Amino acid sequence: MSKTILITGATAGFGEAAARKFADGGWKVIGTGRRAERLRALQDDLGGAFLPLEVDMRDRKAVESLSKLDSPWGDIDLLLNNAGLAPPTDPLPETDWDRVEQVIETNVTGLVALTRALLPKLVERKGHIINLSSVAATYPYKGGAVYAGTKAFVRQFSLDLRCDLAGTGVRVTSIEPGMAETEFTVVRTGGDKDASDKLYAGMDPMTAEDLADLFWWLANLPPHLNINAIELMPVTQSWAGFNVYRE
Ligand code: NDP
Ligand code: 8X3
């Protein structure tokens, strides 16, 4: 019998690539996002294997309703907590509060609310949760405080959740990517496609398909294996040194 994945943020980037990958692989795919037209277009491509649901991760009632889907869609084996975004890299006092709040509510509150609502079902099915953290969770950079803070939360939430789930057979994995070219930077810069193109120019970034391949590999591992965390980067990305302020 085919398995079912719930992907948050299936309208772009990693989530969309994952929806295509898992549908091609014979899974039933529930995809969420705010942009209804993108969800419809994906459904046109994927047909009956895809259930589009317009859900804003900041709407707790809508998020919790995802745990009440009828069978077979309700029989969720894999939750891909992928929906997320970053505020601009401006200094915090200059960053619009609405952007800050939106990021925290989406990346943290929405993710926790959905996970909490789906856990009984995931325990029943010995399912798997894959959470999108980031290299930003571990390596600080200028202008990253709020985004990185949310991703550090996601990483630690993933690890701690494993303690609560001991003995249930449920797997939890934190994925911590570096630079991948999606709509991420266009969104972060408030729609500046040129800035996004410049950021990824000449550095051969990771692609959404790279991440979808990773999710697929994880989903097909034997059930006795838990990958706790994976950090990945394009070969061209590494670290800068410490910043030292001198009088
Ligand atoms: P994209 O901007 O391409 O896609 C983000 C997805 O999240 C969209 O489908 C968007 O859907 C959805 N989303 C955003 N806010 C909400 C919301 N309030 N409610 C519902 N859905 C929402 O970004 P990526 O694919 O690159 O990012 C996916 C995840 O990976 C994010 O969590 C990101 O932080 C993380 N990540 C990305 C990296 C990168 O370099 N690209 C690196 C490390 C981590 P819609 O707008 O339709 O609602
Ligand atoms: C985003 C990854 O390297 O662009 O999560 O900050 S990076």
From TrEMBL:
SMART domains: PKS_KR. Residues 3-182 form the Ketoreductase domain. Keywords: Oxidoreductase. The keyword Glycoprotein does not apply. It holds the Pfam family adh_short. The keyword Oxidoreductase applies. Belongs to the short-chain dehydrogenases/reductases (SDR) family. This is SDR family NAD(P)-dependent oxidoreductase. It comes from Sphingomonas hankyongi.
